[in-house]
Amino acid sequence: MTVPTTADEDRLRRIEFVTDAELAHLDVKDLLAELLDRVCTLLGVDTAAVLLLDASSTHLVATAARGIEEEVRQGVRIPLGRGFAGRIAAERRPVIIEHVDHSNVLNPILREKAIRSLLGVPLVAEGTVLGVLHVGTLTPRVFTEADTHLLQLVADRVALVTRTHQSDVDRAAAEALQHSLMPGALPQIAGLGLTARYVPGQAGALGGDWYDVFTLPSGRVGVVMGDVVGRGFQAAVVMGRLRSALRAFAREEDDPAEVLERLDGNVQHFEDNVMATILYAVFEPSLEHVTLSVAGHLPPVLALPGQAGTLLQLPVDMPVGVSVGPPRRATAVDLPPGSLLFLYTDGLVERRGRSLDEGLARLCAAVHADDVEETCTTVMSRLVGAEPVPDDVAVLVARRADASEAAPLQLVLPAVLRSLGEVRSALRRWLPSVGGTADDLSDVLVAVGEACSNVVEHAYGPGGGALMVHAEHVDSHVIVTVWDNGRWRSARGENRGRGTTLIQQCSDEVEVTAGPNGTTVRMQHHLTGGIT
Asked: Can you give the pLDDT at residue 219?
C-alpha cells in the first residue's frame, strides 16, 4: 500500500480548493471571477485572464480578468495563432514564457503592466478549443509542471461550464429569435382560412425552419415555407435575414420565381456557406389561382373539396445558396372554392427506418379540404402523435372559402390613402367567395372606393382617425357599410361631390347618415350571378 506524501496531500488539497461543490451553484460570470481569484491565490500569481473564441473562431476575446481588467474593458481581441494566447489556442497545448517582450507577446497591455512571466493553457471541451486561460507574474517566475497541471485542471472546469453555458444561451437566444420571427398571429385575409404549427425537434437546438404570410401592395398574398440547413442559434439568425430579405423582394416583384432568384443572389453575395430550401407561393387577389416556385423544398399538398390530398407536381429548382443552376421557374395552379393548400418542412414526413415516399403518402392521406384547424390537428395527430420528433416541424395550411362559408368582411384601417388599396384587395378576395361576378366586383369596388375616399379626404383633420368597412352577404345581396367617427370638412376645389353620384349609380340602395359622431354610408348591391 502506497502512503501518501505531504506533497501528494497538498496537491489534493489544492485541487479540491478549485473544484469544490460550492462553485456548481454560481453562474458563469461569478464562477469565472471566483476561479480566477482562487488561481491567483493558489499559484501565487499577479494576473489571470480568460479569453474565449468569438463566433467566427478567428479571434480570442478577453472575457474575464484579474489584475489586468483592462483586457476586458478594452475588448482585447487576439488573432488565432498570433501572440501568446493565439499560439496556445492554435497549438492546443500549454505555453510558458519566462521573459515577456514584444517578440513573444502581442497584447501591449501585458507589456505595459510590466508582466515578466506567463503560463497559459487551452480551454478544451468535447475536443473543441473554446479559448485560453493564462496567468502572469510581475517578477520573474519559473512555472513548474505542477503549476501547469493545476492551471489545466481549472481550465478544464472553465471549458466545461463555458460550453454548457454557451449551449444554453444559444438555445435560449435561438428560441427567442425564432419565435419573434414567426408570425404571432397570422393575418386576417378575407376568403382565406389560415393556420400554422411549429414544433421543435427532439435534438433540442432549434433550427432554421420558418413560415410566413403577408399581403402585397398588388393585393396578392405571399406565403412562405423555408428551412435553413443547419441548427442552433446561427441557423435561426440566417433564417431571420432570409425572411426579411424575401419580404423586401416580394414587395417589389410579384413573380415568385423572380423573388427567389433575387434572394439567391443576395445569399450568394452576402452569406458564407448558407443553404436553404424555400417554397414561395403567391395567391391572386381573387384567390382563384396561386403561383408557386420551389427552391429545393418538398412539394405542397393540394386537397380539392371531397377529395384526399395529392402532391402538386411542380418543377423543383436548386436550393437558395447553391451557386450553379438554371433560371428558376414558377407554376400557376387553379384554386377552386373550398380547396386547401398544405405546406410543411421535412421534419413532418422524414423518420428513421421509413422511406420519404411512405411519409408523403401518409401526409396526403391525412389532408382533406376541411376546416384548416381540423386538418392541421388531424395531420399532426397522424404523423407526429405522441412521439417526439427528431427534427423541427413547421406546417402552414391555407384554404379558400366557398360561398356557403364566407364570413362577413370587417376592416378597421387608418384613414389614409394607402388604406384604399387594402380595402380594394380585401373586396377582390371576399366578393368571389359569396358568388359575385366580375361586373358585381366592378360596381362594388367603385361604390365602396368612393365612400372610403370621402372618409380619407373629409372626415378628419391633421390628427387622423379610423376608416371602418363591413361587408356581408344577405340572400342575393351584398351590403357594405362604410363609416367614420370624425367631423367632416367641406369639399375643396371645383367639380367636387361627384362621389355620391357614383355610389348611387353603382348601388341598388344607398343610405347616408351623418351626425356629430361621424358619418355612415350603407350600400346594397344585388348579385347578378355565380362566380365567373
From this structure: 84
pLDDT along the chain (532 residues), means of 10: 50 54 61 83 91 85 89 86 92 93 83 91 90 94 91 85 67 59 76 90 70 90 94 81 95 96 94 93 92 97 94 96 88 95 96 91 96 94 85 93 77 91 88 83 94 92 89 91 84 58 93 90 85 38
Contact assessment for residue 113 and residue 137, using Cβ atoms and an 8 Å cutoff = no
Lay out the sheet containing 192-199: strands in order across: 192-199, 393-400, 340-344, 301-303, 310-311
Q: Please check whether residue 433 is in contact with residue 450, taking contact to mean a CB–CB distance below 8 angstroms.
A: no
Residue 401 CA to residue 336 CA, distance in Å, equals 9
CA 404, 410, 415 angle in degrees (round to 5)? Answer: 150
In this prediction, residue 355 carries a pLDDT of 93
Cell digits of residue 276: 436553404
- Reduced to 3 states (helix: H, G, I; strand: E, B; else coil), residue 393 is strand
Please tell me the distance from the alpha carbon of residue 359 to that of residue 357, in angstroms, as a whole number.
5
**Which option is the CATH number for 182-400: 3.50.50.60, 3.20.20.100, 3.60.40.10, 3.90.180.10?**
3.60.40.10
All three cell numbers of 456: 380619407
Per CATH, domain 6-174 is 3.40.1790.10: no
* 518-526/466-474 β-pairing: unpaired
pLDDT of residue 182: 64
Q: Could you tell me the sign of the dihedral formed by the alpha carbons of 293, 298, 303, 304, in that order?
A: positive
Euclidean distance between CA atoms 225 and 396, whole angstroms = 8
Q: What CATH number belongs to 409-526?
A: 3.30.565.10
Cβ atoms of 116 and 141 within 8 Å: the answer is yes
The three cell numbers of residue 347 are 421534419
Q: Count other C-beta atoms under 10 Å from residue 188's C-beta.
A: 12
166 SS3 class: helix
CB atoms within 10 A of CB 334: 10
The count of other CB atoms within 10 Å of the CB of residue 148 is 17
> Residue 517's CB: how many other CB atoms inside 10 A?
11
Which helix (H) or strand (E) segment holds residue 32: the answer is helix 28-43
Domain boundaries, the chain: 6-174, 182-400, 409-526
Q: What is the pLDDT of residue 529?
A: 64
Closest to 410 in 3D by CA, of 189, 261, 242, 201 = 189
For 387, which DSSP code? S
Exposure letters 374-384 (e unless 16+ CB within 10 A, then b): ebbeebbeebb
pTM of the predicted model, to two decimals?
A: 0.68
